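Apologies for my clumsy wording, but can you show me some protein sequence, whichever is easiest, together with the matching structure tokens, please?
=====
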Amino acid sequence: MAARTVARLIPGRTVFFACDIQTRFKPLVYGFDHVVATARKMFKVAKVLQVPVLITEQNPRALGETAPELDPALLGDLFLGTHTKSAFSMAIPPVLSILKKHDFKSVVLFGIESHVCVLQTALDLLEQGYDVHVLADGVSSCNRDETGTALSRMRQAGAQITTSESAAFELQVDADKPNFKQFSQIIKDERENTQRALEELVRPRTH
């Protein structure tokens, strides 16, 4: 039987993309605080699992800077920079150059808005041949009902729709690794935030 090609998150060839999680969106985007909480958890996971993180900001003069809870200083050398953009997609030339330079294969994508910047980023990256994994508990829009349709379109285009905890465990791979105690502590510490994000951002789309 021929082997089946499956889009997996590969340790050492994966990068986290935080899309436009900016301060001016706070009163506008449904469940903004839950998106931030999921992103903050993924930053912690990135540090323990040594996954690089890249941030974009859409027109920061008008929309503000990245939410202060998402401090890239936590990441040290894993931080690949904050890239400003006017295009909706994160797949702008300097970002694509970074992907090629580091020979990444998989992108874990979270942020806002799900039906605009997140969607266009996913489509562009898929077109470029990258595996895209979108966190269902890490994306949202001003209009809550846009997100389900956006996720469906991304899935139809070939993106993997997953959750923050599932993606984290996929990258951890094995409980025998030396970092598992730190990893497990993050999962425990973030349990309530994870549950609330799932309840607010995912459950409404599945009922």
User: Anything to note?
Assistant: Helices lie at 32-49, 60-63, 93-102, 114-127, 145-157, 164-172, 180-189, 191-206. Residues 43 and 83 are 17 Å apart (CA to CA). Strands lie at 14-19, 53-58, 79-85, 106-112, 131-140, 160-162. The chain has a mean pLDDT of 95.
